Amino acid sequence: VPVNHSLLPCITPAPSATNPSRPPPMSEAVQSIFKRQPLSLEPEHDVVCVYDAMTIREACHAFLANDVAFAPVRRVGAPGNVFTAFSGVLDMFTLVAMLADKAASPPANLQELLSLGDKIARARISTIPADKLGHIATLCREDASLFDVVKVMLQQETRRVFITSTNSDEFVGVITEEDMMRKMLSLLNKLVDEDAACLQTALEQTVQERGFTPLKVVSVSVTETQHDAIKKLCEFGIKSLAVVDEKGAIVNVISGRVARSMLSRSTGMKLLQSRLEPAKCDIDAMLCRPDDSLYQVLNKIVANSLRVVYVVDEERKPVGVVSCIDIIEACFL
User: Per-residue DSSP letters for 291-324?
Assistant: First the structure.
């Protein structure tokens, strides 16, 4: 059904922590801007589903064959309605982490990984604990706006929203947090006058003003292995991990996307056996300072296809982190 704004809980603006008299960034004018932007499914993402009757091994190969990093899990024999037919979202990194966690030593390739965790690999997706599956957030695209997408992301604490249609019992698309970053930057570049000023004001806030630093950052030592890094990513339920040297300075960033890289090559799993090392390229694009503005962080995220940017001090030690969702929230709360 079309979205009824009156039925959606209100997003209450929060005063600035550093200047209580400063007008909150999420003014009625900014709300109006996003409400006037129709929901667009560009860039388009194919929504590939897996079935709960499939084995984990079959799911791994389905991810590779369709070049996707996540997929809704459909219950076999369940009604066609998208609101009742799915049990959650399965992430490819979750599969790799589950298998790697059972391996006593890092496997050399995907086949060895599946063999080491053969009992798990042959298990059906329906046996995966519910807390290992992501929440399915949906939104009907008829009469929906970018404002509606943001509200769903924030209120349901999700990084992606699956789009439905009143004329279909299937998902017609998905909007991720990275998509929202690109849309926000594009919107900022095309707005004029008062509208542009409103959004610019929200993004002028600094990383420190928004409280993204100082914070304790989960990290891994450069002396550890990729296998250790993946286990830590799984242990803390995070998608990115700072790699630090003996002085605690950040020298690289490991993300859950490494799982996709490993699975996509027959020798990719050999990476699990290797030790972590400093990045071969300049990682400044992944870092920011406490006095950087959210606009600067937004540009880094979009330009480098990132999910998070790490906040570092003068010694390049991680003292905080800013994610896509953090920027969205900063503009709306």
Answer: T-BHHHHHHHHHHTT-SEEEEE-TT--EEEEEEH
Secondary structure string (H, E, C) spanning 237-268 = CCCEEEEECCCCCEEEEEECHHHHHHHCCCCH
β-bridge pairing 138-140 and 160-164:
parallel
Gap between the Cα atoms of 333 and 154, Å rounded: 10
Going by C-beta distance under 8 Å and a sequence separation of 6 or more, which residues neighbour residue 128? 56, 90, 94, 98
- b vs e for 287-315, b when ≥16 Cβ sit within 10 Å of the residue's Cβ? bbbbebbbbbbbbbbbeeebbbbbbbeee
| CB distance 320 to 215 below 8 Å | yes
* Nearest CA-CA partner of 202 in 327, 46, 321, 323: 327
pLDDT in tens, 113-129: 556 555 666 788 998 88
3-class secondary-structure state, position 67: coil
**In this structure, are residues 37 and 147 in contact, taking their beta carbons and an 8 Å threshold?**
yes
3-class secondary-structure state, position 6: helix
Task: Decide: residue 108, CB within 10 A, 0-12 exposed, 13-18 middle, 19+ buried.
Answer: middle
Query: pLDDT (tens digit, 9 = 90+) per residue, 225-248?
Result: 877 887 788 788 787 899 999 999
CA angle (189, 194, 199) in 5-degree steps: 50
* Per-residue tokens: 321: 């982190």
pTM: 0.81
Split at pLDDT 50, 70, 90, the class of 318 is: very high
- pLDDT tens per residue, range 248-281: 999 999 886 665 665 555 444 555 667 888 887 7
Cβ atoms of 95 and 286 within 8 Å: the answer is no
* 3 state SS of 3: coil
Pairing, β 308-312 against β 318-323: antiparallel
